[in-house]
Amino acid sequence: MAIKKDSVVSLNFILRDAKTNEVLENNTDFHPISFLLGRNQVLEALEDEIAKLNEGDESDILITKDKAWQEYNENLVQELPKEQFAGIDLNVGLELFGENEDGSTVRVVVKEIKDSSVVIDYNHPYAGRDLLFTVNIKEVRDATPEELESGAVAQAGGCGCGNHGHSGCKGDGSCGHHHDDEDDHHHHHHGGGCCRG
Q: What is the C-alpha to C-alpha distance for residues 167 and 192, in angstroms, rounded to an integer?
């Protein structure tokens, strides 16, 4: 019996690089993440496979790079003046949120820090990787009218699986991003990942 659209699905997961078996994310020791099925809050290919499962199921789901974050694109690496990052404690590998010219949110990763500039990477951290999700479906329930209207799952602990990188899960299960500066660049620290697209 498949999980119907707009159900609230709560799950724990381990995300690995399918080729190297490197663990990329693991929330099995923390609160399950919860999301509304069919609302593009997780990768579409992952959502399609989760919809075939039932509460209590555990399953390995392979998502190839063509259905995840595509190939790595060298043209998405950019060098910006260091003053654009004023007030941020920069280090290589730090994930930041910026704002595109059209106002949409973009996530970047600090790739290199030079004397007067910062090299940032607009590629998704998992670009070019085939991904293996091990998911454990903890609960499936009907969404409340409020959840259906807002598109957000109401819960005490944990957070939803964000699709655009602006609602991630910290390791402690809390939701997470915060402003470290309030200048025009709107760079935000990122509190970790879920299974977002």
A: 9
Q: Quick one: tokens of 88?
A: 């941020």
Element holding 112 (H helix, E strand): strand 105-113
Q: What length is written for the chain?
A: 197
C-alpha distances (whole Å) from 15 to each of 27, 31, 83, 89, 102 are: 9, 16, 35, 28, 32
Q: What is the pTM of this model?
A: 0.70
CA–CA separation, 106 and 51 (whole Å)? 28
Query: Distance between CA 39 and CA 181 in Å, rounded?
Result: 31
Q: Are 133 and 11 in contact (CB under 8 A)?
A: no
Q: What is the DSSP string of 153-184?
A: ---SS-----SSSSS-B-TTS-B-EEES--ST
Residue 37, Cβ neighbours under 10 Å: how many?
Answer: 20
Task: Give the pLDDT confidence score for residue 101 in this predicted structure.
Answer: 77
| 112 φ/ψ sector (left φ>0, alpha ψ -120 to 50, else beta) | beta
pLDDT along the chain (197 residues), means of 10: 90 97 95 93 93 96 94 94 92 86 83 95 93 97 94 61 34 32 36 41
Between CA 23 and CA 85 the distance in angstroms is 30
Query: What DSSP state is assigned to residue 54?
Result: -
pLDDT of amino acid 192: 35
